[in-house]
């Protein structure tokens, strides 16, 4: 797993944290959980989550300006071809920003090798972090179960039934997440089945 808290301590206004994503990885969950512990949340207005893409540059620039001045966290979720734009946006804020200002970047692979160029500025100035997905069934199941903390396990008033169904859901998720290696057989389309999908399943289970 990623030691996000330690990596975060080593970053600052001039050093973004750059997640290089493997299939199915979703650093948003981990970043939000760490932010929650340290008081950087969407609810308090101190955490900004932006998906960079067509027409989002203005939104990104406004969030950066505010975050650099007030010491907020910003998570940019992008595909590689938008990193050039992001590199240019970040430059003015690497110096003389609020010491609590942190930038997190996650990037998925670009669709073609020609577009797969990570700007030198981002490569040189950031702390890179990657999470390799576990490869075997027990490791995957372990990772799925341990992605839920004690608070989540105690969310539901009918605790026995809730935990009883949570385990098979994690088991099902593990089976499904391991299937893409067989290619498109049995699927209508390729799909990642990320940790966020599992979290949504558990939230629905809790509601029911």
From TrEMBL:
<dbReference type="GO" id="GO:0007018">
    <property type="term" value="P:microtubule-based movement"/>
</dbReference>
<dbReference type="InterPro" id="IPR004273">
    <property type="entry name" value="Dynein_heavy_D6_P-loop"/>
</dbReference>
<dbReference type="GO" id="GO:0030286">
    <property type="term" value="C:dynein complex"/>
</dbReference>
<protein>
    <submittedName>
        <fullName>DYH11 protein</fullName>
    </submittedName>
</protein>
<dbReference type="InterPro" id="IPR042219">
    <property type="entry name" value="AAA_lid_11_sf"/>
</dbReference>
<feature type="domain" description="Dynein heavy chain AAA lid">
    <location>
        <begin position="162"/>
        <end position="208"/>
    </location>
</feature>
<dbReference type="GO" id="GO:0051959">
    <property type="term" value="F:dynein light intermediate chain binding"/>
</dbReference>
<dbReference type="Pfam" id="PF03028">
    <property type="entry name" value="Dynein_heavy"/>
</dbReference>
<dbReference type="InterPro" id="IPR027417">
    <property type="entry name" value="P-loop_NTPase"/>
</dbReference>
<dbReference type="GO" id="GO:0045505">
    <property type="term" value="F:dynein intermediate chain binding"/>
</dbReference>
<dbReference type="InterPro" id="IPR041658">
    <property type="entry name" value="AAA_lid_11"/>
</dbReference>
<dbReference type="Pfam" id="PF18198">
    <property type="entry name" value="AAA_lid_11"/>
</dbReference>
<dbReference type="GO" id="GO:0008569">
    <property type="term" value="F:minus-end-directed microtubule motor activity"/>
</dbReference>
<feature type="domain" description="Dynein heavy chain region D6 P-loop">
    <location>
        <begin position="13"/>
        <end position="130"/>
    </location>
</feature>
<dbReference type="InterPro" id="IPR026983">
    <property type="entry name" value="DHC"/>
</dbReference>
